[in-house]
Design goal:
Blueprint (H helix, E strand, L loop, with lengths): L3 H4 L1 H7 L7 H9 L11 H6 L5 H7 L7 H15 L2 H7 L1 H15 L7 H16 L3 H17 L4 H13 L6 H14 L7 H5 L1
Helix pairs in contact: 5-8, 6-8, 6-9, 8-10, 9-10, 10-12, 11-12
GO molecular function: snoRNA binding
Pfam family, one: U3snoRNP10
Family: Belongs to the HEATR1/UTP10 family.
Length: about 200
C-alpha cells in the first residue's frame, strides 16, 4: 500500500501546517518521515508529538537554509493550479490566513527585514495580485500595507507594486486595493504614476 506519510511527507506537512497549534498536528508530526536538514527543527516536536507554536514558525521564516515562507508559497501556487477559486475560497481559507499572518509578523519588525525575507515575499505578490482568488488577493494587500509601513522599499519595487495593485483590481476588492495604494503612496517614495495607469 502507498505510505503517504513516508513518500509525501513534505506535502502532508505543509498541507496541515495551518493547524500547527493543534494537538492533532502534533500527532501527525510523530509519524511523518521528514527528511533533510531543513526539517531538523521539527524533530523535537515530532518526537514528543507536540504542536508547533506560531512564534516558532515566524522564527523559521528567517532560516538561512530553508524558509517556511518559501514552502508555503510553493504550496499555495500548487493549490491554485489544482483547484478552482470557489473550492479554494470555501475549503481552504485557513491557508491564506496563515500566509498573511506569517508574512505580516515576519516584516513587522524592521530590524528583522532584509533582502532575503523580501525576496521570498515579493514573488507571491506578483502571483497574488494577478489572481482572481479574492482571499489570496486580500492577503497580499494586507502584507503589502505592513511591508510599506515597516521598511523603505527600492523605487523599482514601489512602482511595480503600485502598478500591480491598481491594474489588477477585481470586483469586490476595489476599496481595499485603493486603500493599499494610498498607504503605499503615503509611506513610500513614488515620484510619478506609471504611464499605463495614467492613460488607462
Amino acid at each position: 500500500y502507498f505510505q503517504i506519510h513516508t513518500f509525501n511527507a513534505q506535502s502532508v506537512f505543509i498541507t496541515f501546517l495551518p493547524f500547527h497549534e493543534s494537538n492533532i498536528f502534533g500527532r501527525l508530526l510523530s509519524f511523518l518521515d521528514l527528511k533533510g536538514i531543513e526539517y531538523d527543527w521539527v524533530k523535537p516536536f515530532a518526537k514528543q508529538a507536540l504542536p508547533i507554536s506560531f512564534e516558532k514558525l515566524v522564527a523559521k521564516c528567517f532560516s538561512a537554509n530553508h524558509s517556511i515562507l518559501s514552502l508555503l508559497n510553493q504550496h499555495i501556487m500548487q493549490v491554485c493550479q489544482l483547484f478552482d477559486n470557489i473550492t479554494i475560497s470555501r475549503k481552504l481559507p485557513h491557508l491564506f490566513t496563515l500566509f498573511s499572518s506569517l508574512c505580516i509578523h515576519a516584516v513587522s519588525d524592521s530590524s528583522n527585514v532584509n533582502d532575503g525575507v523580501i525576496s521570498k515575499i515579493l514573488p507571491m505578490f506578483a502571483f497574488g495580485f494577478k489572481s482572481t482568488l479574492i482571499p489570496f488577493h486580500l492577503s497580499c494587500l494586507m502584507v503589502t500595507c505592513q511591508l510599506c509601513v515597516t521598511v523603505t522599499l527600492a523605487p523599482n519595487i514601489v512602482k511595480t507594486l503600485f502598478k500591480l495593485i491598481l491594474l489588477k483590481i477585481t470586483t469586490g476588492i476595489v476599496e481595499e486595493s485603493i486603500a493599499t495604494a494610498v498607504v503605499l503612496c503615503q509611506r513610500q517614495k513614488l515620484d510619478c504614476f506609471p504611464h499605463k495607469l495614467v492613460f488607462t
